[in-house]
Structures are given as C-alpha cells and as structure tokens.
Amino acid sequence: MSSLTRTSGVGMAIGAVASLSGVDALAKSLGAELSSFQVVFLRYMVSALFLCVFLRLIVRRWPRPGYLKAHALRGFLAAITASLFFFGIAGMPLLMALALAMTAPVFMAVLGVIVFRETPSSATTAAIVLAVFGAGLIVLMRGTGLAGPPVSPFAIAAGLLAPLAYALTAIAMKQSSAHDHPIALSLMQTVFAAVFSAPMAFILWQMPAAELGWQIGLIGLCGAVGFILLIAGLGRIPASLYAIIDYTGLVWAAFYGYVFFNEVPSVTTLIGAGLIVAACAISAHGQRSLS
C-alpha cells in the first residue's frame, strides 16, 4: 500500500509540474496580447474561482478569520513575483526564463545568510558560484550568434528579479505560521494577489479578444489544478523527492516552447540550465546536512 501511495504521489507531483509549467506557457502566449499585470490578474482571479469551488465541494473548510495580514503579505509578494516572471517570460524563450527562475533556492540560501545570520557552508558557496556562472552563461551568450537572437535587457532583469522576489516570499513565509488547510491558504493568497495586481491591470487594460477566452480560463484552471496536485503529492512523497521532480519543469518548458512557440534550446542555455540545477541540488544537500 505504501508503494502504491508513493507511486500515486510521484504521478501527482509530475502532474503538478506539468500543470504549473502550462501556466508559464499560457502566460507567454497571453503576454503577447495583454500586459503582464493583466495576465497576472486574470490568472489569479480565475484560479481563485476554481479554488472556491474546490473548497466548497471537496475540502469544505474555509479560511479562518484573523490572519488577513499574513494572507495579504503572501498575496502581495506573489503578485510581484508573478508580474516580474510573466513580463520576463513574454520576452524570452520558455526554457531560458524557467532556468533563471530556478535560481530561487540559491537566492534563499543567500537571504538565509543575510536575514537569519546563518553561516554559509562550503556547499552554499559552491552553489552560489555555479548558479551565478550558469545564469551568466545563459544571459551573456544571447545575441552572440551562439545562442539565438538577443533578449531585451528589461526582460532579462525581470527574469532575474522574479526568483529574488520568490525567495523573499519564502523568507517571509518562514517568519509566519500557517493555521489553515493548505488549499485555503492558497485561496487567500490567490485572492490577494488578484487584488494587488488589479490597479495596474485596469490602468493598462486591453479588452481580450474573444479567441483568448479559452486561454484565460485554462491558465486559471492549470494554476488551481497544479497547486491541488502539488499539495496532494507532497502528502504522499518526501519534499526531497519532489525537489528532484521539480527539475522536470525544464523538460516541460523545452517541450512547450518547441511545440507552441517553435523554440529550439541552444547548447549554452542547456549547459547554463544544467549548472543551475546542479547549484540547486548542492544547496539542497547542504541544507539537509545542516538540519
């Protein structure tokens, strides 16, 4: 039975990564027509509707009152992270954007040293060096004739700032405690992310074309389903195993990029992505050794 539970957990985790990678692909597609703020607002608004239905029919546990400040902080940071990432992903290949986003665990290790006065281990130092080298290889080789056409410096800046914002989110979450069902927490974060992204979304609002309706619905559904599968999967497998499965997001990014956007990853992007994955693996191993 435990083997079956573990197998189902692995399947759910893979489904979660595939669904959340689908959000990235849809954000890139919608970003060609709408502002990144509008894409963020629509993504979270539709996800919130799906999560409301799921909570009402399946979980039947609504968020507890009294934690609005914590929910608002999570939503605010999520809106910033998604806005940066969606802006960056609209201007660069999917695999490049996701590879840069995967530097988040390394940023978290650096922030742990700065915020919590943690002593950096040799593994953390090695991870930082590898991540910087990998990200630099991906960014600096664009437009040289070896790794495809150049990418806007604004898109690159957003792509690098998004994982930093995500790391700050994780640090903020580490300093607060969770008192609700994980999906109820996700609903509140999603609602507040939609609220905080709404002002800029409405300032830059463009009426979506009718043919974009299915993409708007699908990006919200993929976001909600991805998180539900993630929570269910983590209940069946160790977080360390999920961390390995999460690296398959690079495979999904390459697949979606090739199928939907005709993107062929360059050799330097693949090498840089490999260095970043290695950095994350070293950082995670170092953190486990210290715990």
From TrEMBL:
<dbReference type="GO" id="GO:0016020">
    <property type="term" value="C:membrane"/>
</dbReference>
<comment type="similarity">
    <text>Belongs to the drug/metabolite transporter (DMT) superfamily. 10 TMS drug/metabolite exporter (DME) (TC 2.A.7.3) family.</text>
</comment>
<feature type="transmembrane region" description="Helical">
    <location>
        <begin position="185"/>
        <end position="206"/>
    </location>
</feature>
<feature type="transmembrane region" description="Helical">
    <location>
        <begin position="71"/>
        <end position="89"/>
    </location>
</feature>
<feature type="domain" description="EamA">
    <location>
        <begin position="8"/>
        <end position="139"/>
    </location>
</feature>
<feature type="transmembrane region" description="Helical">
    <location>
        <begin position="212"/>
        <end position="234"/>
    </location>
</feature>
<feature type="transmembrane region" description="Helical">
    <location>
        <begin position="241"/>
        <end position="261"/>
    </location>
</feature>
<protein>
    <submittedName>
        <fullName>Threonine/homoserine efflux transporter RhtA</fullName>
    </submittedName>
</protein>
<dbReference type="InterPro" id="IPR000620">
    <property type="entry name" value="EamA_dom"/>
</dbReference>
<dbReference type="InterPro" id="IPR037185">
    <property type="entry name" value="EmrE-like"/>
</dbReference>
<feature type="transmembrane region" description="Helical">
    <location>
        <begin position="123"/>
        <end position="141"/>
    </location>
</feature>
<feature type="domain" description="EamA">
    <location>
        <begin position="155"/>
        <end position="282"/>
    </location>
</feature>
<feature type="transmembrane region" description="Helical">
    <location>
        <begin position="153"/>
        <end position="173"/>
    </location>
</feature>
<feature type="transmembrane region" description="Helical">
    <location>
        <begin position="95"/>
        <end position="116"/>
    </location>
</feature>
<keyword id="KW-0812">Transmembrane</keyword>
<feature type="transmembrane region" description="Helical">
    <location>
        <begin position="267"/>
        <end position="286"/>
    </location>
</feature>
<feature type="transmembrane region" description="Helical">
    <location>
        <begin position="41"/>
        <end position="59"/>
    </location>
</feature>
<keyword id="KW-0472">Membrane</keyword>
<keyword id="KW-1133">Transmembrane helix</keyword>
<dbReference type="Pfam" id="PF00892">
    <property type="entry name" value="EamA"/>
</dbReference>
